[in-house]
Amino acid sequence: MNVFTGVGVALVTIFTEDGAADPAATAALARDLTDRGIRAVLACGTTGEAGKLTDAERTTIIAAVREAVPAGIPVLAGTGAPSARRAAELTAAACGAGADAVLAWPPPGSADLPGYYAAIGAEAGSRPVLAYHIPWVSAPGVPVDALAGLPVAGLKDSSGSADRLLDEIAHYPGAIYVGSSALLALAGPMGGTGAILALANVEPERCCRAFAGDAIAQRELADRHLAVRAGGPAELKRILAASRGTSAAARVS
Length: 253
Description:
alpha/beta, TIM Barrel, 8-stranded parallel beta barrel
């Protein structure tokens, strides 16, 4: 069974102006996005500046988001780490805070991927585990030909490679979630399971239309996609500050 289908958001973490994590504002954003058609929320992922959060901040944010969004909307938690032991610790904490599934990038070097994801799965229990291919965070990432041998329910691919996406959808039977908002109008009609997107923080409706095959919506996303790709979470927060009045504070530049 797929974790979800359709478009999910890689949620930003809102901070106060003095730099403290703001779980209430983060959860309110998540609820607004689900009310606007978003089908899943990833908390404390790379877009959520997870590497700059304390363990206590992570669990508080996950719990706040889980409480805020409707019961039928899955909350995923980012639990990737440089070691299996650390990823397992983060997974146990996330599940304890209410996460319905976890998403984890592999350790740099990607050695013993089956063992790494098995360790995460042992802590996740019955909750699905998704692998995460994001080579600029953890090179070389998750090879397509290794996917079928991993104890995971599917993969999020943020590489932005159309060739790789085609390979995944054509040859891997598990769930494939595209992570690049440049490829939505390709991924959806081609049979991708869904998307988990940073851009959905600020363009939820257009992202949903593009994934459904609307080429006009895909083109309309171009400027913001390119700006967010260049500027990351800080750019997303600047856009949100202008549209929602939330703090633009970020821990990554």
